Amino acid sequence: MRTIDVAPLPLSDLESHLDEVATRRLRDGVAAARNLLEGRTVWTITPTSAAASGPAEIVAPLVGYALDIGVDARWLVLDAPREFNTIAARLHAGIHGDRGDGGKLAEKQRDIYEHVIASNAENIVDDIRDGDVVILHDPPTAGLAKALKAAGAAVIWRCHLGAQDTGDAGQRAWAFLDRYLEEVDLVVVSRPNYRPPFVEPERCVVIAPSINPDSPKNRVLDLDESWSVARLAGVFAGEPPFDAVAFVHEDGRPDALRELPTLAGAGLPVPQGVRVIAQVSRWDRLKGAKELIDAFADNVATLPADAHLLLVGPDPDPERDAEAAAVLGEVLDRWDLLPESVASRVHIAAVPMHDRDVNAMVVNAVQRVADVVTQRSLVEAFGLPVAEAMWKKAPVVASAVGGIQDQIDDGVDGVLVDPADGAAWAQAVADVLRFPERAHDMGLAAHESVRREFLPDRHLLELVDAIAGALE
Questions:
Q1: DSSP letter at 316?
Q2: How would you class 177 by CB atoms within 10 Å of its CB: exposed for 0-12, middle for 13-18, buried for 19 or more?
Q3: CA–CA dist 58, 210 (Å, integer)
């Protein structure tokens, strides 16, 4: 198990985004948190700290703010071999109602899972004190609950996954996890219908995720900075206004983004003078990247002649994330089959992950310079890139699935479409592009919606309430 260094985040920075009522509510909650957690350590354990990991995106600012208010908060990630990660991927797919690679979740897989969990538990259990709080994230960490609870901690399991109807695949995944969830004091999910089937309602609470408005992925970039990052990264053609763009890492180190090495992908760079429909996501079959290319190609006549499609995701390491590498390969193969007239309007960028904050800056810039941001997922537990784009005042056209429906008020601060209807998606995008004033108003409403509902102030307060419940 490895410790992730996080710099304290000034709560005053968060307050700068809030109105007076929200600020007062947050300050009252901070006072309650200090009293509740005095003398305790709050341990957060995630499967990974990778740039494309939703839990990592959420955890980093929450730990940072906790440190700023004087809470002893620590962030750890699992050490796990490839075979463990394969099992984790199967559980992830199953909870989303998908069979994934079709592999087993039987006794052999359980033995591997428990062996890796035991070796990780050995690294932390002696540091746990009676009364500490441990927040475990997602299926790979669930097996830690028994050992950590035996050491005296209150244990919360936070599941960032979920889908409406998971069928046999979901039952198989939950059956694998059931014995580990019996050991936790409280389960946290993102939507009410994501409660695990064997967990009692009184032992489950709902907390929607949040975004950090001041992170490298979401902090304000003006138009020149955005175009500089997008062009220095090699995603867009043209001369960058600046040779470097300064930023601060989430651990507090100052840095600057300069020209990146050649990107993996296809059809790069995006030419100048076109309008861009951008999707930012992991290379996961459930994110629907291939289907998005098909929707664009099949309905290209519906879209303005200068509309281009841009898919952006992390450049996966085949050794560490074979599944993502395979999906990216499938997306590139699909691009290869496009007629030249369409291929010239489709662009795929796999952004390096050697520095998660550099990766985040590129995502930030792409979402700011895009004319439309889309998230045409087939299945989506929540969909943080939607809230991130809305925060940047981008007009968003997204699938009416999962937590995306909790973020977008259709026709007011974004547009929801059937994920199976490519023609409806193309028409919605075309309408946004053809009516820029409406798109502008939609973006302003989206920003305000995220400010009210999906910033860390609300998340922190709800998490403190959950911890209080687990300690009872």
A1: -
A2: buried
A3: 6
CA angle, 444 then 448 then 454, to 5°: 135
- Residue by residue, DSSP assigns 50-102 as -TT-HHHHHHHHHHHHHHHTT-EEEEEE----HHHHHHHHHHHHHHTT--TT-
C-alpha to C-alpha distance for 289 and 312, rounded to whole angstroms: 10
Q: Is the pLDDT of residue 340 over 70?
A: yes
Q: What six digits make up the tokens of 145?
A: 């609950």
CB contact set of 226 (below 8 Å; sequence gap of 6+): 364, 365, 368, 369
For the full predicted model, state whether its pTM sits above 0.90. Answer: yes
User: Rounded distance, CA 410 to CA 355, Å?
Assistant: 36
pLDDT tens digit sequence for 83-92 = 999 999 999 9
Task: Quote the CA–CA distance of 82 and 262 in Å, as a whole number.
Answer: 28
Sign of the torsion formed by the C-alpha atoms of 124, 248, 232 and 313:
positive
User: Which tokens sit at 349?
Assistant: 């960028």
**162, 197 in Cβ contact below 8 A?**
no
